[in-house]
Design a protein that fits this description.
With 440 residues, the protein is α/β, with parallel strands linked by helices. The protein is built from 19 helices and twelve strands. It is globular, with a radius of gyration of 25 Å.
């Protein structure tokens, strides 16, 4: 989701309109012009500054995601009489600094009001007390419980997204039918499907890139934690050090190692490929029957929204069956924001059910509001059904002291580069120990 977020959010340039009224006083009938006229002060312009990864919609560019956000921003600007000014991140401006690094610096230096943040940044800034508590906003009352869990730090709701990003397996159902294979539920099912594909001449059953293999790990690591009825206690044990992240992560890493050892993924390609660019052509050409991607890729013709075969999007294999994986980005407000009250009002409108209904219908995404359902494309129905049943795992959770999405991604990449499972588990232990040491 990190890569998706950095390429899927928007910035709008500030729209400023100045109205100048010139009053000409002309003398008539020999009278002198009035003296000491004091012009009434104009109403000060109300502006909220937003820092985000991308620019505002170009009116001549078709971009559904940006258009959806435009519509909600227009609602806020009209209702409140404010202007949302966009301060954007571009790699060329910040050179070797990532979006997260720049966002951390801007929040810590109180440079903006409203921010779109990745999960690891939400956790860091929330723990530092640099983000406002949003729990009293009207829009917060309608949130799905998953949103509260993922964006609560030290008991404070510090971020809220406009959409819930869900990851799943995109599968070529025609190929599964051709080889009389049921769609996999468990890791064992998945490996058997790969074996059959490989033995029937499909060289690479699973298309992969260097970012998203972590989704397999999360599905297997946290299937019970999020769906076993003991979530809070298990997270508390991890935060205290009583439980070890490495124990949760081990099965997923052993599974990935099996995929590598059996040649079910092209590890050489995966370790250098960006998301979608490497695996998409083979999936579309029906050379690879399985890829992993986020919800929106099924709606986009430039990704997987137009295929010549029946595509279905299912959850990742786990001990509890097909499991959606859901990381979170979110909008947050700096604790010392200059225009805090206006920013809170803007956020309350763009995240209201009224605005989210527009956003959800336009983008066909999962809403953070429990009151709004998505009318998804048929291929997404299997994934959506699981989410509506309340079955999922979080790929990011601000309530966990060790950041999940970014750290797991990096450690999976170490596995791709030749590290052993034991070395990867040791990396998780070091992260956890360092976090515990900081807090002691």
């Amino acid at each position: 989701m990190k890569n998706h977020m950095r390429t899927g959010v928007q910035r709008w340039c500030t729209i400023c309109m100045a109205v100048l009224i010139a009053l000409s006083l002309v003398s008539c009938g020999g009278q002198e012009s009035p003296k000491n006229l004091i012009s009434a002060p104009s109403e000060p312009e109300r502006t909220v500054n937003l820092f985000s990864p991308m620019e505002k919609t170009n009116p001549n560019m078709e971009n559904v995601a940006r258009t959806a956000f435009d519509l909600t921003v227009a609602m806020a600007e009209e209702d409140l009489g404010v202007t949302l000014a966009y301060r954007t991140y571009t790699a060329e401006n910040y050179q070797d600094k990532t979006y997260d690094q720049v966002a951390l610096d801007r929040v810590r230096n109180n440079m903006d009001d409203l921010y779109l943040l990745n999960p690891d940044t939400i956790l860091t800034l929330g723990a530092e007390g640099r983000l406002m508590d949003l729990s009293e906003l009207d829009c917060a009352k309608n949130l799905r419980e998953i949103i509260r869990i993922a964006n609560t730090v030290d008991g404070r709701l510090v971020a809220i997204p406009q959409e819930v990003v869900a990851y799943g397996l995109f599968v070529n159902k025609d190929l599964f039918d051709q080889y009389k294979l049921a769609l996999p539920q468990t890791p064992e099912d998945f490996l058997e499907c790969c074996r059959v594909f490989k033995e029937n001449g499909i060289e690479t059953p699973v298309g992969a890139n260097r970012w998203w293999l972590e989704t397999f790990v999360f599905a297997q690591a946290y299937a019970d934690l999020y769906n076993g009825g003991n979530t809070e206690a298990e997270i508390a044990a991890l935060n205290s050090g009583e439980a070890r992240y490495s124990d949760y992560m081990r099965p997923g890493f052993e599974f990935l190692q099996t995929l590598i050892d059996r040649g079910y993924i092209d590890v050489e390609k995966a370790r250098v490929s960006e998301a979608i660019e490497a695996e998409q052509p083979d999936f579309i050409a029906q050379k690879t029957p399985i890829v992993m991607a986020y919800w929106g890729a099924a709606n986009t013709e430039t990704a997987y929204g137009k295929t010549d075969f029946e595509m279905q999007v299912i959850g990742f294999p786990s001990s509890r069956g097909q499991m959606p994986v859901m990381p979170m980005t979110g909008f947050a407000i700096g604790a010392n924001a200059e225009h805090a009250e206006d920013a809170l009002q803007v956020l309350d409108i763009i995240l209201s059910d009224k605005a989210l209904q527009v956003y959800t219908e336009t983008n066909r995404v999962i809403s953070p509001s429990r009151n709004i359902s998505v009318d998804c494309v048929p291929s997404l129905k299997p994934l959506n059904d699981r989410i509506e049943e309340g079955v999922y795992v979080l790929g990011s959770n601000a309530g966990m002291k060790v950041e999940q999405w970014g750290n797991t991604c990096l450690i999976v990449r170490e596995l791709l580069n030749g590290a052993t499972v034991e070395e990867c588990m040791a990396a998780f232990d070091r992260l956890q120990d360092a976090t515990l040491e900081q807090e002691s």
